[in-house]
Amino acid sequence: MDLRQMRYFVAVAECRSISVAARLVHVAQPALTRQMQALEDELGTSLFDRTTRGVNLTDAGKQLLSDATRILADTSAAMERVTRAGRGEIGHLSIALPVRQTLTSEIGEILRSFRQEVPGVSITLRHLLSEAQLKLLSAGQLDAGFLLFRDPADPAFSGIPVCTQKILLAYPSDWQWERGKPQSLRDLNGVDFIWIERNAAPNWHDELIHCFFNAGFVPKISALGVDAGSMLTLVSAGMGCTVVPETARNHAPKTVAFMELSDLNVVHKWEFVWRVDNCSSVLQRLVNVVSGFAPVPPDTASH
């Protein structure tokens, strides 16, 4: 018994007439009669009581109608799910976001747009630094991530620019600057500075060290943090100043103030990154959404 025979049987059972059912399923009446006889022979029982006015279901026929109706409905639903999965409309994604203190509004808008477009996709979100995201992406334990630092020449990954962030100086709002407010990093020499250990964020640490060296600034380390949130807490406690991404001000206590410095020229360039060999249709839908938010290069926007 195959699905086609089930559909024919259900049509006959519901119409209570082989001739009417034949017109409904677009099959010649003799052919449909042979199909029903073959089905009864295969099952070894009568499914119909045949009369001059049509057919009635036997007890076996009633049971088959119940089962066949359910099977056909399940089959139709399965086909619909397969089709939707192929279009990336259902499924699951594991995505990593930056640490909470530096979450950008652009990333929130991307995820909101994706949710509106494909509400049937479930998402697991994790907050991880760039280095951790790349490790999990390589291991296949993560579908995609919003991150800062990666080797653009690595052929294993592909990425789409999302947004950029400036880096700001954060300091206690009640500080009295003995030499006046700083204009550059060099002006911070001798000032208590809150730093981050390299193993907490190696790329971020090294990028800042390079910037500090070029500016002639040697931090006088007064305390250590592990992320932007802990560093802002230490700033709020008056233990020193530090540098953080500009979005960190959205989560900062009122006792922390911010300013730009002329030579603090580090810029965070956020990317949406995934493995090129990930063939997930759901991931491709998200890639398409992110592409719609990608910043337009200045030379392109001018045309």
TrEMBL record:
Keyword tags: DNA-binding, Transcription, Transcription regulation
Sequence ranges assigned to domain HTH lysR-type in this UniProt record: 1-58
Lineage top rank: taxon: Bacteria
Annotated GO CC locations: protein-DNA complex
GO molecular function: DNA binding; DNA-binding transcription factor activity
UniProt-listed InterPro entries: LysR_HTH_N, LysR_subst-bd, WH-like_DNA-bd_sf, WH_DNA-bd_sf
Coiled coil: none
Family classification: Belongs to the LysR transcriptional regulatory family.
Name this protein carries in UniProt: LysR family transcriptional regulator
Organism: Pandoraea terrae
